[in-house]
Give the backbone structure.
Amino acid sequence: MGHDRSVRFAEPTVSPRVLAWTSEQFAERIDEAMAIYVEAMGYSPGAGHQRALTARNHVHIDGFACRVALLEDDSLVGFGYGYTTARGQWWHDLVRRALTDEMAREWLDGAFELSELHMLPEYQGRGIGREVLTQLAEAIEHRTMLLSTPDADTRAFRLYHALGFVDLRRNYLFPGDSRPFAVLGATLPLQSDGP
């Protein structure tokens, strides 16, 4: 069943609540989530459509977990999700080749891949992304969490480092994106201190 809700209905002064969603709940609203992805990353709407196709497959991967930020009227303003990374997955295999064998064994084997974490721009910098990420990390049983993020001094990059993520690879170019990315990893539980 589709939803005709817009991704925002309220003033940014309203604080969203962070909730766990099942794979089925996320699948129902993937298009809304990918509209947030497009806006947060500065991609074209076509990229959001393509990412939605990929995300529809992600919900079936072992270890899938999701947290969302919703306003009182059920408008989606942010989300984060991931799953257990494994050989044969696009991101996993690219990152495995980018790391040394020792790093790959230490960080990738049985890790949780944070596939996406995005907030609408007007909700960024308010601690909502931190709450989505920390709730997600607390809910999983993996030893490590890995992610990739644009390799630039952004709020997201600073947040990841504040929570204990370390650089595993910098200036990495993923196929299909001309921007360099950083591959980061954290041992769970995440650090709770920092800005």
Q: What stands out?
A: Residues 45-58 form the longest helix (14 residues). Helices lie at 23-28, 30-41, 45-58, 90-98, 101-107, 128-139, 155-162. The radius of gyration is 16 Å.
